[in-house]
Design brief:
Layout: H1 6-22, H2 24-43, E1 49-50, E2 57-60, E3 67-68
């Protein structure tokens, strides 16, 4: 199960708003990549390395300097 903390949700919205101000196309690509990674984590969680705790995994975004934990 994927749990998104309130802080992570706020960070995500801030990143999206920042990209939206720069270029709406970039914001849409960021959102699409984020959703794709969340789907992969949900379906194949063991595909990603453990991060600080056995229940946490980290997935690096391919086109953006962020990770989903």
């Amino acid at each position: 199960m994927i749990i998104v903390s309130p802080q992570a949700e706020a960070n995500l919205l801030g990143i999206l708003q920042s990209y939206e101000l720069q270029n709406p196309d970039i914001a849409a690509r960021f959102d699409a990549e984020y959703k794709k990674i969340r789907g992969l984590i949900d379906r194949l969680p063991r595909m990603y390395r453990v991060f600080h705790h056995p229940d946490y995994r980290r997935a690096h975004m391919m086109r953006f300097p962020y990770s989903v934990i």
